[in-house]
Design a protein that fits this description.
Blueprint (H helix, E strand, L loop, with lengths): L1 H28 L1
Length: 30
């Protein structure tokens, strides 16, 4: 249970980081 929770958090944070990176790239392009 604890391990799966950590994995879920990791995936969630990875998605947030990727979204922020994409936003930054889009901002630079615009």
């Amino acid at each position: 249970m604890a391990e799966s929770l950590l994995l879920q958090q990791r995936k969630y944070y990875c998605k947030l980081i990727l979204n922020e990176k994409l936003k930054g790239l889009k901002g630079l392009k615009d």
